[in-house]
Automatic annotation (TrEMBL):
This is BGGP Beta-1-3-galactosyl-O-glycosyl-glycoprotein. GO terms for molecular function: glucuronosyltransferase activity. The lineage of its organism: Eukaryota, Viridiplantae, Streptophyta, Embryophyta, Tracheophyta. It is a single-pass type II membrane protein. Coiled coil: none annotated.
Amino acid sequence: MDTHAVPRAAATVDLRWLLSVAAGAVFALLLLLAASPPFPLRPASLFTTTSPRRALPPLFVESSSTLSAPPPTPPPSPPRFAYLISGSAGDAPMMRRCLLALYHPRNSYILHLDAEAPDDDRAGLAAFVAAHPALSAAANVRVIRKANLVTYRGPTMVTTTLHAAAAFLWGRGGGRGADWDWFINLSASDYPLVTQDDLMHVFSKLPRDLNFIDHTSDIGWKAFARAMPMIVDPALYMKTKGELFWIPERRSLPTAFKLFTGSAWMVLSRPFVEYLIWGWDNLPRTVLMYYANFISSPEGYFHTVACNAGEFRNTTVNSDLHFISWDNPPMQHPHYLADADWGPMLASGAPFARKFRRDDSVLDRIDADLLSRRPGMVAPGAWCGAAAAADGDSNSTTTGGAVDPCGVAGGGGEAVRPGPGAERLQRLVASLLSEENFRPRQCKVVEAN
């Protein structure tokens, strides 16, 4: 029995030890909890995964001020014109007068005296341009120094016109020439009946692809007298001027294109001039080769190209914008205009007229009554009033003791000051573009041709 007493005592000791340890641990834990501060609660924002909902704006908001209307569309800028003024021996004084009557710093000008005129005339024109403050400052007037030999009624008249057109496109230094919208060919015996402000005002309202070409496909007697005969112009290959000569053989009328004829004086759009010079299809060159042997080719080449080119036939306006007095039936040359033609000339509404004799009294009347231009001076316009005011007339030119208010360097702004000439021209253009005149007279093909 004594052998089992010791183990029971050991078991009792072990149980007491475990109970005391457990009680001590519980007591220590209670002391720790009592000494610690309360556990803080997490703020609700830490558990929020979405932002607080914002108030939606109201569907309709009343403005405190009235909405203003959009600003009006500004008017188009006035167009620019590229003028070719051609002449021959003895025409230099008339070319100077015509230039001053037509001048505006926004435009471009080429003066061509053919090779029959002496070199002194060309040098005199160039010196006149260089000495004029307004013309030289704008640098928009060019005198062709290397003159072309031109035969009346020959194809060299066409090549001279194309030469000037190419020069306007190319410019002086190689590259794109000056900005311009319409090309106008005139002779030394032409003269304006409106100011450049009048012309710019009316043309600023027009589509800039319009081509003013007097034309018809009813060539009548010209088929036998001009289209079938063949001529050669010696000015194409000779240094001295000679008469056209005729080739005995005759040719039939072309079938690759339709012939058109009309006035040699035109107002051509820049897109059409680019087509004539660059010819992205071959029609301009083909027709030019045909008209190289055609009598009076300036009265047919441009018209035939325009009316056979699908891109341009619908841009033609059947008028040359000239007042010309012809015999009935027409002779080779029109009448020289005089004071007796004053009424019909104004009633026509045309911006240009021809032919005039040098220094005829009717030109003085046009200067005084229509252009407000004094002798030897530039025709005034809105541009030179501003230029003169800014310059203080310090660079104004003096003619016969009178100061030219437009003989100053500068100007060329977009302001125009249309006068009665604009009203006359506007009536003419409205008639030409009317429903009964525009489309029905546009490159109309006459089958009897």
